[in-house]
Amino acid sequence: MTLTTTTTDEDQARQLDEHDPMSTLRDQFHIPPASGGPFVEAAYMAGSSLGLQPRSAARALAAELETWAQFGVAGHEHPARPWMSYHELLRAPTARLTGALPAEVALMNSLTVNLHLLMVSFYRPTTERHAILIEDSAFNSDSYAVRSQAAFHGYDPDRAVIRLRPRPGEDTLRSEDVIDYLNREGHRVALVLLGGVNYYTGELLDIPAITLAAQAQGAVVGWDLAHAAGNVPLRLHDWNVDFAAWCSYKYLNGGPGGIAGAFVHERHLDDTSLPKFNGWWGTDPKTRFEMRPGFDHTASADSWQLSNTSIMAAAPVLASLRIFDDIGMEALRGRSVRLTNYLEALLDELCRDPRLTIITPREPAQRGAQISVRIKGLEAEKVRDALRYEHGVYTDDRKPDVIRFAPVPLYNTFHDCWRAAAGLADVISKHSQ
After folding, report:
1. C-alpha span between 425 and 371 (Å, rounded)
2. Which of 14, 227, 321, 322 is deepest in the core (most CB within 10 A)?
3. β-strand pairing of 402-405 with 356-358
């Protein structure tokens, strides 16, 4: 294989950056230095694993550290930004980001903790209806969560958890196949829990259509939005989703292990019959400090919150959400499609090698800000390291042979896409000699 890129190709990438209708917000983020190659900054295409740090995050954290230093415990009631109600600052921007009502969202815990708390309420198995439907390529933590929930209720996870696979010879699970299965077997499905955007392939499932089909068969529908929140536009309230959960450290740039989010549809918020694990931050704030032994229900997603918010974890998320508010998901999605289409075209042109296959859907409406490439015969980890240390291109690998490129519209550029494709072509060329 030969590297076909030319100086003109690179010039074209720079021209696309100059003329894009939505300029990058790259200068609002810390870009790691390049570990190799001729460029100073990395082409950071690993936002599907960990988003970059907004420059405003340090200021947000510093402000809370200063409040702690100056006020101690009185920081909970500090007039500028009291810690007691800090979580409320995140409510409105999170609702706008996910297409929810403010009362339907809460920022709390971590992703899998939130999934478990929500399944306590929404996985209500019976002898006739106890199956949990997930995709076969679900992230491991989702598999562990649903299997343990099935076992907790006394069912054999190998039987209760149904793993839908793509058609033979295909890499992605078609939304129509999910719907077809629900139309045939939905009568025994208690819970559908799918990833909105698949972590491995970058496929965007048809969330509203699958939700409608599942609920028509009497199933409850939850979504893992770890790779969808901050990546694609969401309309959780209008789509009538029962519940959802997501993390904040990928496309939302909230920092490693950042505080996670949860959504519960409005129609469930006042249902006191739902089983729920309670904690003191979920009780009615009007009576919270009366220290009653009984739980005072409040009709919001906050009632699923167990503990007071980690301020130091929430501050970077708040800083990032303000960036999303400034630009809006529709504009970001438009730029995401342009970047991903360009990267796909470059990979097709530059990497003409039968060992390389793009496993992400070709239709832009069926994918997020991700292109996953299978490289037959090469270890993904070695390709990842060569890209990083020889070309300054950060990617993410999935064993045994998949490399994930995530052109994040907030900080990636067309030139980053060119560097990624040219770097991959060079790495593969060296291994073909």
Report:
1. 15
2. 227
3. unpaired
Domain 61-326 has CATH 3.20.20.370: no
Reported as a single tens digit per residue, the pLDDT across 94-118 is 999 999 999 999 999 999 999 999 9
Q: Cα torsion for 214, 216, 218, 219, to the nearest 10°?
A: 10
Question: Rounded to whole angstroms, what are the CA distances from 15 to 12, 18, 414?
Answer: 5, 5, 9
Number of residues written out for the chain? 433
List strands edge to edge, sheet with 131-135. Answer: 105-107, 261-264, 243-246, 220-224, 189-195, 131-135, 161-164
pLDDT at residue 353, rounded to an integer: 82
Domain spans, the chain:
7-30+328-431, 61-326
Q: Cα–Cα distance between 426 and 421 in angstroms, integer?
A: 9
Contact 413, 47 (CB under 8 A): no
What mean pLDDT comes out for the span 345-367?
91
Per CATH, the number for 7-30+328-431 is 3.90.1150.10
Q: What is the pTM of this model?
A: 0.96
